[in-house]
Amino acid sequence: MRLIFAAALAAVLAGPALADPSQGVFGSTDKAAAQRGLLVYQTVCAACHALGAVHYRDLEALGLSPDQVAGFAAGIKMQDGQPATLDDVFRDPGMGAAAFGGAVPPDLSGIVAQRAGGVAYVDGVLTGYAAAPAGVTLLPAHYYNTMYPGGQIAMPNVLRDHAVTYADGTPATAAQEAADVTAFLDWTADPNLDARHEIGVRAVMFLVFMSGVAIAAKRRVWREVV
Amino acid sequence: MSTEVKPSWTASWLPFISNWQTGLAAPVLVKEAPYLAILPWLVSVGVIFLTLSGLVLAVYYSPAHAFESIQFIDRNVHNGWLVQSFHETGASMVFGAAYLALLRGLWVRGYKAPFAAVWIWRMAIFGLLLIAGWIGFTLSGGAMADWSLTRAAQAALLLTGAPGAFGTWFFGGPNGAGTLPRMLVFHLILGVLVLGGVAAANSARKAVTPVPPRGAVAFHPYYTTQYFVALSVFALIFAVLVFFAPRFGQPFLNLVPADPLVVPAKLLFPWYLAPLSGLGSLLPGIYGGIIGVVGGLGVLFALPWLDRSGPNYRPGALYKFLTLVLALDVLGLGWAASTSSGLGSVLVMVFGFWYFLHFLVLTPLVTAMEAE
Asked: Most C-beta atoms within 10 A of its C-beta, which of A35, A41, A86, B364?
């Protein structure tokens, strides 16, 4: 069932890839990676985690067409049995603490901004599972994770090679899936990054110019008195 | 037939404009005042900017759903993220200018007669800004902000007498559904009070600033051009922060929604509140915290009397050196109060002790020595 859903999702997402993978101060959201990450998110993470700050309509910002987003939402059955609409927030799976030994799966909307290390931390947790070293006794229903503070996490290692099939042909290794879903969550935590940097470059250029004009005017006016 | 010149429309109906024009053109100012003397003006420009951006935020903000409503502004209001970032970063800019203006005031002894009244008004503005800044922080509804509010409200309930009565009235009891709506009202009214303080400080400054006997210049065009330079550079720094470091100086754990069942290991504050939070943690107990915060601000108010030199003494080398050490001390205090390492609590003690030592012991001693 999950494979069928993933394949349907991959077909929906097979649109033009709008990649701009530059990062850094002038970086923008890597939309191709975030689109792949959305597929991973919906196939794997959404089973337990909510994404309460994101509406389905927001996905258009990732470069999906309105039809693609509508198709994506229509494929999701909300708690009341109706298909999701564009104005619904991501379906809350309503996972209680009982399922994971007392640990409630956190809402992931802002997880990248809420954790020290941000992207590196989220990617590190997803890829940080290892066998517990000798001398470490794991708590019941916990797993050893090198990135998680304290080393014991209640979330099992959920990413496997080929858990999804990417429409753009990217090999779906577990590490690739982790990087992609991290890119998606980076976008959900900071959805205005692209607009911010785009306006920012123009604003800073203008203000540098204005400061230059101001300094020239000040010198010109003061030349006659000093 | 009358030969009188018909007064212009603005002179008849908006006479304050011609008053401004006369004031701007009057040659009463010294030549080439330093750029740093513009900092208090930048603070008031920043406060007006915060008032306008805060007005936009206030129409979308709901104190009953503090965290969610800011998420809503950031994600679902057109350009809401921009206005929210304007307000948050604008607060950083106002405090940056205020801290620098404070440092310059210490450096040039701007609190000496006849400027003592101006200094007191400016310290009142600084105190009001810090209170408004803290309340604004609590309005974010994040984990750090909400727990800070919870602790303050609980502390107020434990006070007795007049402070207790005021605290209970201010917070309205323990942190609950009614607390943030009160904080919102106080945040707005404090902004207005700051603008009133700016007006009072300006008139106090004008009353005591002497007109230079020779070579005085008018505000326009000389200082309008200089202020324009300062404002452009101020706006440039602001734009860099807004667009490329929008969370500058804010504790990232405050981006986690508040949970009444999850207590932060250590309360963290925005950078501009961190030094004061360090002073508040110097002494144990509720009254210890109040003494630390009130005392930390109180020594600034008392500076005109702590400085033992006469009116005509220029600051000596030792005093200037100690002022720079104090600046580093306050930076260190803020850092130590914001770090979660065990060293932090020790360094808060050291830096906090030096802060009070500087004002209560070293300042009277050094100024009296240098005045001889």
From this structure: A35
